[in-house]
Design a protein that fits this description.
- With 364 residues, the chain is of the alpha/beta class.
- It contains 16 helices and 13 strands.
- It has a seven-stranded parallel β-sheet, sandwiched between helices. Strands 10-9-8-11-12-13 form a six-stranded parallel β-sheet.
- Helix 2 links the parallel strand 2 and strand 3.
- Helix 2 packs antiparallel against helix 8, helix 4 packs parallel to helix 5 and helix 10 packs across helix 16.
- The radius of gyration is 22 Å and the shape is globular.
- It starts with a strand and ends with a helix.
Length: 364
């Protein structure tokens, strides 16, 4: 009899990871997936995932409604276990988020199998950072760090009682174990990159996320990734930077991938080619285009990094976060990891000056 596993998915990125794990490390398991309302249009996504037939069962769950923060009813659900929506006993529970919903589902699963094994998988670069370390320390998943007396003991044990799944994590699966900034008490294992040479697998992602190459071609050799700083009120001089890049390579060779949160397409108004579709994950787009002759440029977006670390793609990547006048916009517990990533990938560069930027572009 095959062992059974359940994936919890709260974001499109997590769904991509779950699919890859299902097709690789968990290919010989009976695998179900829970897709929550943390994803916009999650019902449409549910239908797409069901159609491709990767998972035996695709389950919808309104996690935002059932597990809101600072809510007494939600607290009771986490503590005593919500109404069980699962009709089978699972051997493994795979999840990524540091949240109460992940713990509530774990309690439900424990009702049918109290020996179920909890396994985390990465949720982007936050999983490698002090962000995760600080959280997991509270649950004893990080060895003694000398700061135990600085914490409120009662608060710590309260969290361990309510969200006990984080006390029972067996291992974490990540793409790049070497860049982790902390050492958890559980095992950390490397995941296989998504095999972009596997046409059947790529087509699965395309069908789920409705990839359409006719909308945006991304044929230009230089791609700049706009971030949400403009919408958030930060001045990072990204327009000035793009204009400088255009003066080096020519505007006709530059494509700007806009950020969906920004209210105006500033770059289209300046005559730059920009994307029309903002709903397809960049990782899925990357699976379908040749990046070998391209240069990906960003201030601090992981979009310039994940094609190398998640997909094993070869290209020229440039990060400009050392060049902006105000770095208060950066999530430094995450962006500080980029130097390690660049050290491990010779074609990823962290530049400090316009001259270095020009030199990196010229190398391609």
């Amino acid at each position: 009899m095959k062992e059974k596993c359940l994936f919890l998915v709260n974001t499109p990125y997590q769904l991509m990871i779950a699919i890859n794990l299902r097709k690789a490390e968990y290919a010989n398991y009976d695998a179900d997936v829970v897709i929550t309302d943390n994803i916009s249009d999650h019902k449409d996504l549910l239908d797409s995932v069901r159609c491709v037939g990767i998972f035996e069962n695709v389950i919808a769950y309104n996690i935002k409604e059932l597990y809101p923060d600072k809510n007494g009813v939600a607290l009771a659900r986490r503590l005593f276990g919500d109404k069980n929506i699962f009709d089978k006993a699972y051997d493994y529970y795979l999840f990524a988020n540091l949240d109460h919903g992940a713990s509530g589902i774990y309690r439900m699963l424990c009702k049918r199998n109290r020996h179920i094994k909890a396994i985390m998988f990465e949720d982007g670069y936050a999983s490698y950072s002090g962000w995760y370390s600080d959280f997991l320390t509270m649950y004893g998943s990080i060895p003694y760090d000398g700061n135990v007396y600085k914490r409120l003991i009662l608060k710590t044990w309260f969290h361990r009682l309510v969200d006990n799944v984080f006390c029972h994590v067996e291992k974490m699966l990540v793409f790049n174990p070497s860049i982790m900034t902390y050492k958890p008490s559980f095992r950390v294992e490397s995941m296989k990159p998504i095999d972009v040479k596997n046409s059947e697998l790529v087509e699965t992602y395309n069908r789920i996320f409705k990839y359409d190459p006719s909308v945006d071609s991304y044929k230009e050799p230089i791609i700049f990734f706009e971030e949400s700083y403009y919408a958030d009120g930060y001045n990072v001089n990204d327009v000035e930077i793009v204009e400088k890049i255009a003066s080096i390579v020519g505007k006709e060779k530059l494509f700007v991938k806009t950020h969906p949160r920004n209210p105006d397409n500033r770059f289209e108004k300046l005559g730059y080619k920009t994307n029309k579709n903002t709903s397809i994950p960049w990782e899925v787009i990357c699976m379908n285009i040749d990046l070998s002759e391209k240069t990906l440029i960003t201030i601090a977006s992981v979009a310039a990094i994940v094609p190398a670390t998640m997909l094993g793609k070869k290209y020229n990547g440039i990060l400009l976060m050392k060049m902006i006048p105000d770095d208060s916009c950066l999530k430094k517990n995450i962006t500080n990891l980029y130097e390690k990533v660049c050290e491990e990938h010779s074609r990823l560069h962290l530049v400090k000056t316009m001259q270095e930027l020009e030199e990196c572009i010229s190398e391609q």
